[in-house]
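Journal club prep, notes for RB
We'll compare a predicted complex against what the paper describes. Inputs for the zinc ion case:
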Amino acid sequence: MILVFLVYPAKIFYRIAQGINNKKGQRIVIKSQNKNSYTCNSPLLPYHQRLYGMTIQEDYDLLLEKSKKIIIYQMIQAQLGWDFETYMPSKGGQQRSMQFATLAKDVHKLSTDPEIGNLIQKIKDDPEYSSFSKIQNRNLYLIQRDYDRETKLPVDLVEEIARHQVIAIETWKKAKAAKDYEIFKPELKKALDLQKKRAHYLNPDKHPYDVLLDIYEPNMTSATITKLFNELKDGLVPLIKKIQSAPNQPDTSFLTRTCPTPIQEELATDLSNVVHYDLERGRIDTTEHPFTTGYYQDVRITTHYYENEFDNALFSTMHEAGHAIYEQNLDEKFMYQPLGQAASLGLHESQSRFFENIIGRSPEFWEYYMPKFKELTGDIFVDIEDKAFLHAINHVKPSKIRVTSDEVTYSLHVIIRFEIERDLSEGKITVEELPSIWNQKYKEYLGVDIEDDSEGVMQDTHWAAGLFGYFPTYALGNIYNAHMLHVIRKEMPNYDDLVRKGEIKPILDWLTKKVHQPASLYDPADLMERITNVPINTKYFIDYCVKKYSQLYGF
Ligand code: ZN
């Protein structure tokens, strides 16, 4: 008898269709009560088979198949998103939004399938559960975590958040253009209230900000980040003052020389090859804001070529290639499994910044790459000395805008947003006070005067999009990657020489083994501790900055 379980993937369906032999070798026919449950007519089978006709392993396999289907749907969403940002015809928006909406609905249905909850419970109730491996347990934990997140929220709230996100982003755009925070304020307040509500539903016993943080950086807490960021602030603020008052300031004028797009494209491809971003499993296209999307065998990046800012595409390519390398080097055996994904946004950012800054802006790398750079750019930069070039691409200048800031000041932009988010979530400050608090912090930490709110509190889209708890991951990336560099130098004493020779492969192999391959087997803090043998701390990033920039600026 063949049963039709259209909701189940072919492999599982095939196994069920074969029937199961009981201990006496009799053929047990499994009947379906409905498409989401199983019954079995043999009293001789163990508990879980009697009830459901499945062994614990089959339950687990079925759970993984369900999860795999969600992952594949998400890959399709991501690919359509990539096309939307790159090559979709300008009038294709309406059709695309129908595709997005249909997929989103299907993914929601798959992710909230009650059978997932039932299977998790069945597995946990089974006496054989205690013999589950570390990998099986981790997959189960991640499936449960995502399932809880999807099912704990009332549908009304999910819809309200989605609806409000569109309104808030539109209002933010108008308010930013009009340089008028008053227009944005009510929508920002509502976005924050909705996120607080969301946090409460997800976990009423936990600090709401920690609940939100957990979505982007699993099990990270606001207390830990406060400690780390305070240390970072204490180390970076005086360093920036020293850099600013140093007599040896770079001449950055050559950075605006015209560098034609085809040359920049060649540079982007060449640098991708140097850092081993596999272009047979990836590609480089252009978008207004560079991004990376994909998984294992198809990971694409985008960049932006400005003819009078060649360094923009050069470093954004290195940055996105770092993200892509992480995805390309996840352990193949975890593909399509819940744990077959990057451990967190902070770790992702650590990899992008490792290639962009730690390698890409290092003196050792430019010892290797300068001849190639000059060869590819012809006579455009022929008169620029190596030292002057290196200093200019490492120019530190406190600014108002986060996305264009340098390696040293970047973290302070992030710290400001974190402190505001944390204090808002605790009710210590109000949405009304935001512009004045923002401006005061920019003055205090970066010495910058904010003249209007469009270049101040309204510069990023994150809050309009309801992304509270996301910002800290940007600066955690810096903390993580400097930490990794410290360990790499210890374990690979010839690290600098390798970079000087452009031999990135052994370094990449180290990162792959320690960071990429474990995928989501551990929470980010645990993974970092396994790599470094000490709890996360800011010392290495501060030391790295002090050493690098005191040499460049001569103090
Ligand atoms: Zn990034």
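Talking point for the session: Strands lie at 20-21, 27-28, 30-34, 37-40, 282-286, 292-295, 298-303.
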